[in-house]
Amino acid sequence: MSSKLDQLREMTTVVADTGDIEAVRRLKPVDCTTNPTLLFKAVETPAYAHLVEEAIGWGRKQGGGEKAVQAVCDRLAVSFGTELTKIVPGRVSTEVDADLSFDGKATIDKARAIIAAYKERGVEKERILIKIASTWEGLQAAKVLQGEGIDCNLTLLFALPQAVAAADARAFLISPFVGRILDWHVKAGGGPYTAETDPGVVSVRSIYAYYKTYGIDTVVMGASFRNTGEIEALAGCDRLTIGPGLLDELAAATGTLPRQLDPEAPGKAPAKLSLDEKAFRFAMNEDAMATEKLAEGIRGFVKDLRSLRKLVTEKLA
Q1: Beta partners for 32?
Q2: Which of 4, 110, 131, 143 is catalytic?
Q3: What is the DSSP letter of 96?
Q4: How far apart are alpha carbons 80 and 40 in whole angstroms?
Q5: DSSP 3-state of 88
Q6: Residues 251-262: pLDDT tens digits?
Q7: Residues with Cβ < 8 Å from 276, sequence gap 6 or more?
Q8: Entry pTM
Q9: Taken in order 232, 235, 237, 238, is the CA torsion positive or negative?
Q10: What is the pLDDT of residue 19?
């Protein structure tokens, strides 16, 4: 019998959640997604020293200061992304700086600059997804970018209102975070949970049913998994982005993997929502989990972004 990973690939597009180029080469996902945390880990790996040295050498010619440091970090992200496009046949997600999560104009400007940098390296925008935090400002920036033909991946998504606003923005893809939703509920004293009752799994199933029932084309890509049980419970989802460790576990596992999500029978959908800015912000305020995890996620990515900038500053000196 084929492995559970092979069975999953028959019904779901598998995406690698890593900046580790060698892991991507070994696991052969269709797409690849990175974030500041993963990029910071990759930059510290000796195997990628040549990419870091190239970016630092380029940065020294740009003069000093904070702008040069940020430019080197952007160059590193595009360098890693370019290498990943040579391995995966599909898309590579590259994240807009998390400290721009509440600045729509700066998010748009940064996204355009990332796409331009990829084009300079011969990578067309059709190979890239711009990853943006699912704040109100980020969602509105995505609406503008999608109108320009720049496809977006709305990340740090924890609740249906964010998914509805992403659909209204005609976002190419959303990344609802399964494991972080579970983390919040466990910390709040909930559980024990099975794969079927896992709050993160339940949330993604609800969003999936909403999208399929109301004819929304935005891709649902479950993310942030804590165990293979969560992944198996979402078999059939449009896409799933999975870390190398869990991909290896699925590759080693045998047994039948039944389809759980089917666009032809998506299950009962929540009532259709219409959200302006005030309604969106109020709905998020009513959801303590979504509000707290969104803020925590942005803080975490900003922390790793600052660590990356510190490392670049030291190397430039």
Answers
A1: 16, 92
A2: 131
A3: P
A4: 11
A5: coil
A6: 999 999 999 999
A7: none
A8: 0.94
A9: positive
A10: 80
- Pairing between β-strand 219-222 and β-strand 239-242 as defined by DSSP bridges: parallel
User: Can you tell me the distance from the alpha carbon of 160 to that of 6, in angstroms, rounded to the nearest whole number?
Assistant: 30
- What token pair was written down for 236? 């059939």
The helix/strand count (H/E) of the chain reads as 14, 8
H or E stretch covering 69:
helix 66-85
Distance CA 211, CA 206 (A): 9
Pairing of strands 219-222, 92-95: unpaired
Q: Which amino acid is at 55?
A: A
Burial, 314: exposed, middle or buried (Cβ in 10 Å; 0-12, 13-18, 19+)? exposed
**CA-wise closest residue to 67 among 129, 113, 122, 101:** 113
Is 119 catalytic? The answer is: no
Q: Which residue is it, tokens 């040579």?
A: 86
In order of start, what are the domains of the chain with their CATH numbers?
A: 4-316 (3.20.20.70)
Dig out the tokens for 76 from the structure.
């590193």
In this prediction, the residues of the chain whose per-residue pLDDT falls under 50 are none
Structure tokens at 202: 């339940």
d(CA 47, CA 90): 24
Amino acid, res. 45: T
Q: Are 138 and 204 in contact (CB under 8 A)?
A: no
Which amino acid belongs to residue 158?
A: F
> What are the start-end ranges of the E strands in 160-304?
173-176, 219-222, 239-242
| Per-residue pLDDT tens digits for 62-114 | 877 888 999 999 999 999 999 999 999 999 999 999 999 999 999 999 999 99
